[in-house]
């Protein structure tokens, strides 16, 4: 049976769930042997800082039009985002459900429906 491009996308999307499971499992690993454990052991501020650094690097490659580098930096952003979820006690399903809730809703309408926030 031939697989459709949609089938391949669904299979590949599970890599994020597997990555999440790996980061959770490594949370209690020796920080000397696990990058995830080392990041998580340094606290929320460091986890968030690393995510921000990777996001900026991703933006730089996008603006420069460096597609190959953008792929690598995008993977780094997703990894560090997952580390941040683990640090915050979030489960991927919470994010998938929010994305599903927003599916088919205009971005303008969705943003307008959010409560007003102060600060950032």
From TrEMBL:
EC nos: 3.6.1.31
Subcellular localization, as worded in the UniProt entry: Cytoplasm
GO MF annotation, one: phosphoribosyl-ATP diphosphatase activity
Catalytic activity: 1-(5-phospho-beta-D-ribosyl)-ATP + H2O = 1-(5-phospho-beta-D-ribosyl)-5'-AMP + diphosphate + H(+)
Pathway: Amino-acid biosynthesis; L-histidine biosynthesis; L-histidine from 5-phospho-alpha-D-ribose 1-diphosphate: step 2/9
Coiled-coil ranges (or none): none
Record key words, sorted: Amino-acid biosynthesis, ATP-binding, Cytoplasm, Histidine biosynthesis, Hydrolase, Nucleotide-binding
Any Pfam family hit: PRA-PH
GO biological process per UniProt: L-histidine biosynthetic process
Tree of life domain: Bacteria
Family matches, as InterPro entries: HisE, PRib-ATP_PPHydrolase-like
NCBIfam families: histidine_hisI, PRK00400.1-5
Family membership noted in the UniProt record: Belongs to the PRA-PH family.
Protein name: Phosphoribosyl-ATP pyrophosphatase
UniProt organism field: Brytella acorum
């Amino acid at each position: 049976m031939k697989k459709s491009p949609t089938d391949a996308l669904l299979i590949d999307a599970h890599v994020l769930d597997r990555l999440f499971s790996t980061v959770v499992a490594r949370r209690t690993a020796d920080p000397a042997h696990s990058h995830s454990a080392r990041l998580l052991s340094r606290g929320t501020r460091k986890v968030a800082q690393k995510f921000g650094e990777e996001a900026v690097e991703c933006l730089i490659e996008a603006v420069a039009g460096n597609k190959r580098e953008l792929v690598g930096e995008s993977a780094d952003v997703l990894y560090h985002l997952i580390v941040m979820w683990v640090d915050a006690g979030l489960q991927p399903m919470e994010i998938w459900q929010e994305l599903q809730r927003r599916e088919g809703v205009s971005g303008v309408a969705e943003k307008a429906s959010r409560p007003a926030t102060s600060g950032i």
